[in-house]
Amino acid sequence: MSTDVKSPPKGSLLVMALAATAYALAQTAVVPAMTGMAKALHTSSANVTWVLTGYLVAAAILTPVMGRLGDMFGKRRMLLIALLLFGGGAVVAAVVGNVWLVVAARVLQGAGGGIFPLCYGIISDDFPPHRRPGALGLISAIVGIGAGAGLLLGGLLIDHTSYHWIFWSGAIMAALAALGVRTLPAGDNHVAGKVDYIGAALLAVGVTAPLIALTKTAAWGWTDARVLGLIAAGLVVLALFGLFEQRVREPLVDMAVLGRPVVIATNVATLLAGFAMFGAFVLIPQIAETPKSSGYGFGMDATKAGLLLLPACLLMLLAGGVSGRLSMKFGGKVPLALGVLIAAVGLALLAVQHGSVTTIVIYSVVVFAGIGLALAAMPNLIVDAVPPSMTGQATGVNALIRSLGSSIGSQVAATLLAGSVAAKTLLPTDRAFTEAFTIGAVASVVAGAAALLIPRAGAGQAEPVRDAATLTAVPSGD
Fold first, then answer.
1. Superfamily, domain 12-195+252-461
2. CA distance 237 to 129
């Protein structure tokens, strides 16, 4: 990685933060609107869930693809394309009146998943060394902040306007960010190559099948043959994807780089941290919106439930900055391990006591402060472990793994709650929340163990294993 001191144009980080926020908000803003959307679109609740599922699946697939294309054709150029696709999809979703057209628009929005690896790559290429950890930490922290803020935004909009404004707000932010993209550094770390279409198709099938299975576990059950079959089929295709990528000359994902110990351990910790984070995002609003007659719920509306997470999301932003400073001083391993272990403490406390607004707010602050430290450290570890020409694909895969962890965490939490619903009240039991928080705490502890196994800094600085001819730099075309 280059150590030349560079001065990116003023406002560069703000433009990237706005782009990242637009995508992060869109992850969860539709969740409070699902019931209202089903009524407005004259469709079933099962159909409208594809508005969320289609987005998550498309983003999971397109994130590493957009990262690889950024390495090949220029990260600034691909960031603009990602924003235009995301914003265009938002406009379509806002104006159409058919649920399947909305789902198609959300699939188009999934290209926004490439925003994160592209931003990481721009920062890695063009920010001076002393600014990189903090900048990477800020963009990464927005993942969690946006997810929490998305619940609040969605609740506010659905309570006071209509679901259409959830999409219009995303389109406006994407448009503003797109206008600022030309101010970003053009970069010169391009690599010659061809698009690995076969690898992209294998990755798409391998990721889509398990994700669809996960979204159906609440309805079908974890032991249903369809769920197990889709997961097994996806894993088989992903194994074929890995074998294919090792043999193709210009792969979508360089398996030799992903196989570095730093990258493996970081990705394992990322999967588990995503699991714990989104499990909490599901559980806390659920407790808040459950009627008081349950004995544990607060009977809040969607807006108030979202406000419960606001202090935690704000502290997550601060934790991202702290993580950057710790990364500069001690390396990314320290804030990653410290963060997931702090999150484990918060989740354990929530498992023991979640019966009042005060305890929920305080303990969620602990959880998300820890998650903020961890999320901000992950891209720093990945960027430091791979060559500059591969930051897009490596951070894209890391973002994909975080999304998978988030999907698994959300569905495990939802399945536990659904499986405990009492016949008389039709509400989940308090014990189910305790079990779900406990599982999240255990996942965070295991993530901490994975973080402690990350080799010392510098182990991943070697140049890529592949033939230099496949990584020949080409002039910038931005």
1. MFS general substrate transporter like domains (1.20.1250.20)
2. 39
